[in-house]
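S.,

Sequence below, as promised.
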Amino acid sequence: MCGIVGYVGKQKAAAIILDGLKRLEYRGYDSAGMCVLQGGRLDVAKKAGRVEDLVEEIARHRFSGTTGIGHTRWATHGGVTDANAHPHVSSDGRFALIHNGVIENYAQIKTFLAGNGYGFKSETDSEVLCNLIAYHYAKEPAGGEGTSCFLESVRKALGHVEGTYGIAVLCADSPGEIVAARKASPLLLGVGDGEYLLASDASALISRTKNVVYLKDGELVHVTPGAFSISTLDQADVSPVVDRITWSITDAEKGAHAHFMEKEIFEQPLALENTMRGRFSEDGSTAVFGGLNVTAAELRQIDRFLFCACGTAWHACLVTEHLIERFARVPVEVDYASEFRYRNTPLHPNTLFWVISQSGETIDTLAALREAKRKGYRALAINNVVGSTLAREADGGIYQHVGPEIGVASTKAFTSQLMVGAMIALYVARMRDMSFSDGVSYVTALKRAPDLVRKALEQAPHIKAIAKRFAPYNDMLFLGRLSLFPLALEGALKLKEISYIHAEGYPAAEMKHGPIALISEKCPSVFFAPSGEIFNKIVSSMQEIKARQGPIIAIVTEGSELPPGLADEVITFPECHEAVLPIVAAIPVQLLSYYIAVERGCDVDKPRNLAKSVTVE
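The prediction came back faster than expected:
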């Protein structure tokens, strides 16, 4: 959830770390800071607020050292203050630490350390860990001097903590060195030309290297100017695997767009093409997946699917449930990942477990995956980040291949998840009772999706004008049925996330069972009204809203005819196959939310209180 950057090399560390922190701004944070090791001392600059607030503070320090660490914080323990910002320095002044995650037993450790003379300047659990490292260092032979003492002090301290962490640590006695470690919080090492970089996200180091080592849980990396070594908490050596990042620095830049979210909305046709590429059979009748690690015979024995995810990915699961049950006739259950771990859910023995996460680091989703595997179930993942924890721990899965998604509010990753879900439904259906010709029609429809999305995006100027009209409202309902009910949930979530308007999503027919009490001229309703058998049912629900003076925005299929005067505004999308409908229908609500947020002056890419990757429970 927070951002980590570290540098060891020959160049001045401060500018490189600052650039990395700026590239991590999208993750969501409330303070930032850095520490550079120079002249045998730890020089720290940190500030509550954005990275831009830190720049002036950095200028006063005249950093010149070539080893340093930087951090963007999303508050968990303690308020948003300069003192609570990272890095934290131990009370003896020897160590500086940055930390993502939560130390669950920090209170007991803090009491112990206070009894041994260690002081605290912040309210954070992270400072406790920093002092715990100093405590173990002071107990090392020869007064705690030397390289091995630095590494072993970190290792011993981590042996006493409960919770999650991604940390990077400096020691004043070990110039040119960083020790870092992870447990359930992402951390990777960039291997550059005569330099090494640490980061919680590849976007922070992609401008300097594409060669990375993904640390696994329970691993520590010791970085020096000329080398690095990886070991476990149990002191076992680890042979590093250097992977290569496939996307470029331009993929993580806004270009001509005002916001990353706008860029990613308009990237969706290409993102969908990348998601589908190479994943259809030669006869064009079904989908093919190379990394499921489940044979067709094994999959035919599956009687039930269970999908777990959080937030936007959970909405994608709901759409996937509808399509699998509709076309493959296999029962599907969808659960919140955050609830699954703590509920004793009865599971059918022939159940295939799926998790979806854009980042592959969502801690609740990882916990659900691990719980399913503990119970002996095969667990597959749908994920956008190669090398993520989810990808490594799942038994198999599907990469989305949409490139980095920087905007906190997911757009292209969401529609890609919908595409993967539609392809899974096809894959399973063709194994069951879907005919060859129906499979060919289905594949043809999926291949048309990028062009249909391009056509839907042509509505952007019209939707922008509608957003200007509706931006002053503070409440809104989103209503849809069948596969578009999850889109109503997603539309409401998008609006809440980036414009701070209170919004709720409901099945349209459920509106009269309670939510209708909210209807007034001050509460607009956004209706999905696609053509088909339930179009008239949805129109009836719209008339109930209109009878109570509720403003209506109708999102309808091209050519559909609404009763005159029923909708205050109409947005159209092209006619499409049922499997593609949710993908195309997502575009209008993404644009509507985006333009409303811009009209209200909100910081679209960095909405308050939110983070891109939620790595704490």
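The mean pLDDT is 90.

Coffee later?
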